[in-house]
From TrEMBL:
This is Uncharacterized protein. The lineage of its organism: Bacteria, Bacillati, Bacillota, Bacilli, Bacillales. It holds the Pfam family 4HBT_2. GO terms for molecular function: fatty acyl-CoA hydrolase activity. Belongs to the 4-hydroxybenzoyl-CoA thioesterase family. Keywords: Hydrolase.
Length: 149
């Protein structure tokens, strides 16, 4: 399975009155991790958008495990958990520097036409991207780690 990693330096503005990272900031970090994964695989959201397509979140789930604080670093690990005709599910782990799990999450996405918001298969929008996702999911099914390297 190909797993991308993104380092996050926790900023003071991301914390709440208790000195821990405010829960909504994890959503931003998941996006950073997802963007890093997509770039690692050779694609960009900006490229998709320039062609008139978007990939909105249709579902998201986060389980918080251990607080992160200002001055620490977080590491977001991201992978393609499943990829079908219309839906892609990404998996995430947000980790402390020592590897302690801070949060785990999944997000589900579809590709839509920007002007109508009608769903369209990724295979029709970007066949190479679709093929890469199928490859990394298939690699996960066979216990293969980082098939692109």
């Amino acid at each position: 399975m190909y797993i991308s990693e993104k380092e996050i330096e926790i900023r003071y503005a991301e914390t709440d009155q208790m000195g821990v990272v405010y829960h909504a900031n994890y959503l931003i970090w998941l996006e950073l991790g997802r963007t890093q994964l997509i770039e690692d695989l050779g694609f960009t959201y900006a490229g998709m958008e320039s062609e008139g397509f978007l990939s909105p979140v249709t579902d998201i789930s986060i389980q918080y495990k251990a607080a992160l604080r200002y001055g620490q670093k977080a590491f977001v690990k991201t992978w393609v958990e499943s990829h079908g005709r219309l839906r892609t599910t990404y998996g995430y782990e947000v980790l402390h520097e020592d590897g302690t799990l801070a949060a785990k999450a999944t997000s589900e996405h579809v590709v839509v036409k920007k002007d109508s918001f009608r769903p369209v298969p990724l295979a029709k929008v970007a066949p190479e991207w679709d093929a890469k996702y199928k490859e990394v999911v298939r690699g996960a099914d066979h216990g293969v780690r980082n098939p692109t390297t």
